[in-house]
Amino acid sequence: MKVLKRIGLVILSLPIFLIVFFILYEIFGMCVNHMTTRHQTDQLQANLEKEISDFKIVEVYSETGNTSGTGNHVDCLSAITFSTEMQDMEIKNSMSKYYHFDEWDCFVTKTEDGNYLFYLNTSAPFRDNIEGH
Q1: What pLDDT is attached to residue 59?
Q2: Which residues pair with 18 in a beta bridge?
Q3: pTM (2 decimals)?
Q4: What's 68's DSSP letter?
């Protein structure tokens, strides 16, 4: 009889264990995605500082989540607004060894106030995380 009680208890607690495991997995994925975005933004900033001699940061922005609003996926978005005397083609040429410019997920553009915006959007490691829904 004790064996049947134990088996019944295991069967009843299995769904609770699976739900807890799923929640912990999603939380772990969220943490990894946010760390990846932070690392991507820091790396972008370091590369800009290394390649552009008169680089001055105006604003740094990063976001983890579904940035496009389409589909259920998680992106890592890094956007740095900076000032420099270089032209946008010079910036692209100097940064092309680190990034592939495709004018959609990675591009440099001049803002209205004369600064430049470097935009980088990549897929997160846990792409199908709850943050993307």
Answers
A1: 96
A2: none
A3: 0.87
A4: S
What are the contacts of 35-42 at 24+ separation with CB within 8 A?
A: 36/64, 36/76, 36/124, 36/125, 37/62, 37/63, 37/64, 37/76, 37/77, 37/78, 37/124, 38/62, 40/76, 40/78, 40/120, 40/122, 41/78, 41/80
Give pLDDT, residue 133: 67
Residue ranges, the chain, pLDDT below 70: 133
pLDDT of residue 51: 94
The DSSP element (H or E) to which 106 belongs, if any, is strand 106-110
Give the whole-angstrom CA distance, residue 25 versus residue 11: 22
Tokens of 63: 């976001």
Is the distance from CB of 64 to CB of 37 less than 8 angstroms? yes
